[in-house]
Amino acid sequence: MEKMSVSVIVPAYNEEKTVGNVLGALVSSKFPDEIICVNDGSTDNTLEEIERYKDNVVIVDLKENKGKGYALAEGIRRAKGDILIFLDADLLNISDAHLEALLDPILSGEYKAVLGYLVGKSGMSIISDLTGQRAYYKKDLLAHLKEMENTRFGVEVFLNGLYSRKETKKVALHGLRAPYKYEKNPQTALNGYITEGIEIAKIVGNKRVLPQSDFRILKELEDMVDLKSLENKIREISDTEIRDILEKYILRYIRRM
Hints:
The chain is an alpha/beta fold. It has 2 domains: 6-172, Spore Coat Polysaccharide Biosynthesis Protein SpsA, Chain A (Alpha-Beta Complex); 181-254. It has helices at 19-28, 46-51, 68-78, 96-107, 138-141, 145-148, 155-160, 181-184, 186-206, 212-221, 227-234, 240-254, and strands at residues 6-12, 34-40, 58-62, 83-86, 113-117, 133-137, 168-172. Helix 9 (186-206) packs antiparallel against helix 12 (240-254). The protein is globular. It starts with 5 loop residues before the first strand and ends with a helix.
């Protein structure tokens, strides 16, 4: 079997404290044939941190924030590899063992999508369906780039919808850690979780018919700042999948704040 080349794509938005950790580990790794980092209109020193690796990293600099879906689509367009690995820019300790765990199921030929999830202290997976650590064949994604670039925070849900459970492999990335939003910026964490959770829920909702009452609640959530009211409102949602997403993505994490 001819060796398949690997491109690693790292979208980054205001990750000046961690993006260097990720890129430094990738530059030292034996796995990537190409590393692409997409600066998604960052307003801090993220671009400066990325440019420290300009001799070994393809840099895509978006002048304004377009969202994760757009950044990934731009990275895919530039990628030369047969296999694509997506990594978040806030990972603290990505290693070759983690990259190998993402690659092995794809290289086996048994799967078209690999989702690598972080494992919490309890041993349980941390939102495995919404993980940013993934692997795909580039050829399988090319036809979906226009749709992908409009998904913003819901890109993981969009990607999940492209493949059946039989075509998807989930792998635990033991020991891998990323800071929670409240660790990075407590002042904006609450609004960030709400915004991203709602966008993800809307993408799922658009795939089927939701009751108008649920759409109305999603709209109301956008303006809520009180945690208790937010929790009560989420529980009023009748669609169990949407409610589950919001409880996992919003409530599970902001309770730690």
